[in-house]
Amino acid sequence: MSALVSGVRRRGGAARRRLGGMGSAVSAVAAKELRGRMRGRRAFVVVTIYLLLLSAFAFGIYTYLKESAALGQATDPVFGIPRPGLPTFLGYGDAGLSASIGHALFSGLLMVETLLVLVLAPAFTSGAISMEREKQTLDLLVTTPLSTLGMVVGKLISALTYVFLLIIASIPLASLVFVFGGVGPEDLVRGYAVLFALAFGMGALGLLISALVRRTQTATVLTYVLVLALTIGSVGIHQFLVVVTQSRPTGNVIVAQQRHKSPEALLWLNPFVADLDLVCTTAPGSYHITCAYMSMVTGRPYFGSQFNSGMEGGVLIDHFNCPPGGRGCPAVAVMPIGGDIAVQPALTTSFGFPRDTFWPKSAAAFTVVGLLSTLLAAQLVAPTRRLRFRRPFRRAAVAPLVGATPTGSIEELAPGEGPPTEKATDES
Amino acid sequence: MSAVVQVDRLTKRYNGSLAVAGLELNVEQGEIFGLVGPNGAGKTTTLKMLATLLVPSAGDALIAGYSIRRQPDAVRQLIGYMPDTFGVYDDMRVWEYLDFFGRCYGLPAGRRRQMIGDLLELVDLANKREAYVQDLSRGMQQRLCLAHALVHDPQVLLLDEPASGLDPRARVELRELLRELRALGKTILISSHILPELEELCTSLAIIDHGRVLASGKVEDIHQAFRAGGVYLLRPIGEAGLMAAEALLAGLPEVASVARRPDGQLEIALRGDEEAAARLVAALVGDGVRVAAFAPAASDLEELFLQITDVEPSAVMPGVQEVAA
Fold first, then answer.
1. Contact, A269 vs A362, CB < 8 A?
2. Which segments within A297-364 are labelled E, that is strand?
3. Residue A174 and residue A167: Cα distance in Å, rounded?
4. Which residue does chain B place closest to A143, by CA atoms?
5. How far is CA B138 from the centre of its chain?
6. What is the dihedral of CA B84, B90, B91, B93, to 10 degrees?
7. What CA–CA distance (Å, rounded) separates A386 from A125?
């Protein structure tokens, strides 16, 4: 009994030690890196400049919208198309304008921050390991008993801490949208969830490439090529497939659509598409260009107003034939009056796009990329255990006396291969 | 007495070329063991394998009984490694540098503080505690790197060319430091391509080239083995005498090599003791070669080192190689 207890205790101790070892590796490396990064004024100057730029940008959006409203043009500078005379704010008055400003601020800040994270997160990590190689400090680090996973995670944490600091520093500014309305706290939370996942995924990706490539310059360039491929490249390929696989609408059916077979997954790692999803669901009024795009991407019907009928590719439901009470349909079937619905804008207000259809997949994809990259980077850094997952060393398990093991076993192994199994080595 | 470091047929291949070819070494507790060899002899590769930075292609080595192949984590706890070329982190103070490595080895904060003070005292950097690492001179960085290898009080030190790039004074200081460490009971494995540097410092030596041990043993033993032979200068009279002497010497088993010097003397590397030298002179005279002068050249280990590392490894000194086995 007592043996069992002590055995359990011992095992618990070993697990704790192992976790503690990993923890100490992470904290040692992260503390060292952060110390270097936050030393001097540079780190704080960067935060200040970043916030000043964001503020100026937000102020620009606000001023622009206010001015154009004064001119009678309801214009969403980020994604809306100015349609003078259209009744976007009809019946809402100042509240509509305010919500529109809130929405525009939210969209603009989200996009700009996405861009910054996309640029900064890999910048902080793409040199993390190649730099150690170049400066010949990696050997010193690898000969310590630090687990390479701990090392890599430590480096990632220190880089991400700074990116997260930038993201978090922008929260008060982003909260300005609540002053204008139109965007709920839950929308902001969604936006920041995407940003954090993006920072993690891209940071880890940069780290992986840094471990893969010998030189920092090459690693940085390669990382940004990948980032470009994920953003511009993915949209391009997706759009190309849309055009290629598209089928034309076939007359007067309930769901008049332009179906295509371009896989949505192509865009999961494009943070801007995730942003569009969030922008769409906070759009004031019923029609928004982002919703049309998201509808096209996800293949979900978008019950917008008639104004989107000119949009390319969106899946739209002819709401004259919308079943009453159907999702997104008006409670009462809209009857065509005079055959032309363009004169009935007020009837389109309850339409919208379903929430959370795209961005959670995107956030999950970034997280998965981040996790995989981290694990792979750790394997690449380890000199003796390349591409081989192995349990960490436990001191108690190996305690041969000095010189007790007879030497003389010799195994031919290809370079880079792991050590032989116990069975193979004991036959000497 | 058991060896702390046992190297058993350690082999490393890089893309088909053999960097280390079945190296065998035994280093006893408390020794300062020198690895000497020309550039590219496989010293750095050997030390890197011992430091668990490279996986051997074949063979193994045990450090205090732990295999560098199967128990690299245990080995890492036992060794302090100082690479031949290393960099330092920017934006880091001297004490932070040691503190960081202390954390890497899992030392608690209290011990780290004490360790930093002690080590800086030991490597004579106590007054540089708050200096930035990148601002230190080359010699100071070298000492700091040595201090980093001592952070966890390892049993075995692996030092790869620790004296390279140091001025004479710094070399002397380093030597003193290593003696001090030996007095603390550490086993030190040190590599260099400069033999005299190690000759004074080490207790044992291994001369390696082409990834093989050419000679190894206690410094006195090697001295004796080499002193027994040595380099002699012979000056026969006339070109004819020179030719005749060369022809004769080439056939003698005691002669390792013969070289003609521009001043008309022959440089003879001899195996064996003075008896052998006497026999050689007798043979020359008996053959009718007119000898004007025959005397030992100012010979030391260095010169012999140059000679034996010049020759194909298989042809070299079977007698001495037995010391290694």
1. yes
2. 316-317
3. 10
4. B76
5. 22
6. 10
7. 21
CA distance B146 to B122: 10
pLDDT of residue A253: 43
Q: Which residues have C-beta within 8 Å of that of residue B159, sequence separation ≥ 6? A: B82, B146, B149, B178, B188, B189, B190, B191
Query: Exposed (0-12), middle (13-18) or buried (19+): which is A130, by Cβ within 10 Å?
Result: buried
Chain B residues with CB inside 8 Å of A21's CB? 106
Q: Do B66 and A141 touch (CB under 8 A)?
A: no
Which one, of B79, B66, B125, B134, lies nearest residue B105 by Cα?
A: B79
Check residue A343 and give its pLDDT. Answer: 34
Residue A247 has pLDDT above 70, yes or no: no
Closest chain A residue by Cα to residue B66: A400
Q: Label the pairing between strands B66-67 and B58-63.
A: antiparallel
Cβ-based neighbour number of residue A314 at 10 Å: 21
DSSP class of B41: S
One-letter amino acid at B17 equals S
The ipTM value here is 0.70
How far apart CA A13 and CA B115 sit, in angstroms, is 26
Tokens of B160: 């790869």
Q: Is the pTM of this model over 0.80?
A: no
Which chain A positions have a beta carbon within 8 Å of B6's beta carbon? 403, 407
Whether A89 contacts A345, CB under 8 Å: no
**Rounded-to-integer distance, Cα B123 and Cα B121, Å:** 6
Please indicate whether, in this complex, the C-beta atoms of A144 and B55 are within 8 angstroms of each other.
no
Q: What confidence tens digit (pLDDT) does each residue in A288-304 have?
A: 777 778 878 887 766 55
Contacts of A402 in chain B (CB under 8 A): 2, 4, 64-65
User: What interhelical angle do B94-104 and B138-149 show, nearest 10?
Assistant: 20
Quote the CA–CA distance of B165 and A93 in Å, as a whole number.
79
Res A397 pLDDT > 70? no
How many helices (DSSP H) and strands (DSSP E) are in chain B?
Answer: 12, 14
What integer is the mean pLDDT of B217-236?
73
| pLDDT value for A271 | 93
In DSSP notation, A170-232 reads THHHHTTHHHH-SS-HHHHHHHHHHHHHHHHHHHHHHHHHHHHSSSHHHHHHHHHHHHHIIII
Give the tens place of pLDDT for each residue, B279-298.
Answer: 888 888 888 888 888 877 65
- The two tokens of residue B248 are 């004769």
